[in-house]
Design a protein that fits this description.
Number of helices: 12
Structural class: mainly alpha
Helix content: over 70%
Order of helices and strands: HHHHHHHHHHHH
Distance between the termini: 55 Å
Shape: globular
Number of strands: 0
Length: 264
């Protein structure tokens, strides 16, 4: 257990320095949504750290999946943010926090996300802190789930990106592809990645502790900064309320048969 705790402490210290650096970048750029780009890159850095210091195919597989997921997500968010103004969620926080905005942003945005980053990374830490061993059926199951999550999230992001680039739309909200089955399939894919990595971590002695990782990302996206903050913006919109009545919020499910506009 000491190896696991030591590895977690090293990651926590590194994340503190990393997120503080990005906070300085946010001040210089006057855009706090740079933290969203920092999110994916931070996980990739953690994965690279363990890949460089630990032997074993399990560690390398986990590191590759996390690095690929994190870098793809960071590039996608950075590309998206360059084409538009600052994310409305951070603009709203600036308005609400006023003169205490700088301090509260550092603590409640950058440091809080850093803390979540450490907790969510527990499956990676569990694998990286363990001695190498042969891969098991559980490893292959977890890797399959994680890769499926990466595919779902990337596909959902690509579908939404194409929709937003259309000059003429018959609907405000994408309601085709994965978005016809879930209002937030990208978030579902992201959580699936971490549940899959947790399954892999069960092949190590620290796997049971690592369940805090997928629980944290699921809670964060479904109850805190993900779905609730995004959907609050559209409450009362007739088209959104129709979409909401037909399509499940998170886990993809067959949509209910009620009338509502769809994008051809």
């Amino acid at each position: 257990m000491s190896d696991f705790m030591t590895a977690a402490a090293i990651v926590a210290a590194g994340v503190w320095v990393y997120m503080t650096t990005w906070f300085v970048v946010a001040i210089v750029e006057r855009r706090d949504d740079v933290v969203d780009t920092a999110w994916g890159l931070g996980f990739a850095a953690i994965a690279a750290f363990f890949a460089a210091r630990t032997e074993g195919s399990r560690t390398l597989l986990v590191a590759f999946i996390v690095a690929f997921w994190g870098i793809r997500l960071a590039l996608h968010i950075n590309r998206r943010n360059r084409r538009r103004g600052e994310d409305f969620r951070y603009v709203e926080l600036r308005r609400r926090w006023r003169r205490f905005f700088v301090l509260r942003t550092y603590i409640q945005v950058f440091m809080l996300q850093g803390a979540f980053m450490v907790v969510i990374s527990l499956p990676v830490i569990a694998v990286g802190a363990s001695s190498p061993s042969e891969l098991s059926v559980l490893d292959f199951l977890g890797i399959t789930v994680a890769v499926a999550g990466v595919f779902i999230e990337a596909t959902a992001d690509a579908q939404l990106e194409r929709f937003r680039r259309r000059r003429v739309r018959k609907t405000k909200f994408l309601q085709q592809g994965l978005w016809a089955w879930s209002r937030h399939p990208n978030y579902f894919g992201e959580t699936l990645v971490w549940w899959g990595l947790w399954l892999v971590s069960l092949s190590t002695p620290y796997g049971p502790w690592a369940i805090l990782g997928p629980l944290a990302i699921t809670f964060l996206l479904t109850k805190v900064t993900g779905i609730p903050m995004l959907e609050r913006k559209y409450e009362g919109d007739p088209e959104f309320e129709s979409y909401k009545a037909r399509v499940n919020a998170f886990v993809p499910m067959r949509p209910k048969r009620t009338e509502g506009p769809t994008e051809p």
